[in-house]
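User: Hi! Is it possible to get a structure for several chains at once, not just one? Here's what I have:
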Amino acid sequence: MKIEFLGHAGCLIEGQDVTLVIDPFLSGNPLARKKPGDIRADYILVTHAHQDHLGDAIPIAKASDGLIISTFEVANLCEKEGARVHAMHIGGTREFEFGLVRVTPAFHGSGVEGGHAAGFIIEFFDKTIYHAGDTSLFGDMELLADLHDIDIAILPIGGNFTMDASDAVEAVAMIAPTTVIPIHYDTFPVIKADPQEFREMVEAQIDATVVILAPGESLDLG
Ligand code: NI
Ligand code: MN
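Assistant: Yes, the chains can be modeled jointly so their relative placement is included. Here is the combined structure:
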């Protein structure tokens, strides 16, 4: 199993012949190495409909005959564009062939009228991954960690639109993962952040390993 960082908030998770992609923002992403046509995915998870998250989800889903999993409002938007969708919402859980998905709260806009931004806890075979989406720091991350033994936390550190690196350190303390992957930084000047500094702050205080991935790099989980 491996997790490839696609750039920005985009991650591609592969294992046991299942490919799942989260927030594939490639077109118009100055740091992305892959093009939408390079990606085939069985499942496409979308945290919210801002363009830097919905991104290329619809064309990838249609080209792959993949299933978009998102909140009800975003799923409806994707279905209208011809994608196959499974709508969920905050607090909902459902079993898929790879494992359970829980839609988590995220404190942020949704990019669609009446919607709500989200994150995901994904039990992908034997690993539990928390992709926080675009969010502020919030205390119920601790509750999520009570409900799920989170192995890998994928957290924004860029600030301005989301939590910054020092808030993300607090998030790591609550989530207590083994591994942390920082995302949502450096894509645009307004979210410039230093992931090395984030790593030093986390590893000085918390028993977790920060893995900094450049777009196109992967974390191999065996
Ligand atoms: Ni956003
Ligand atoms: Mn964003």
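The CA atoms of residues 37 and 60 lie 7 Å apart. Residues 165-175 form the longest helix (11 residues).

User: Great, thank you!
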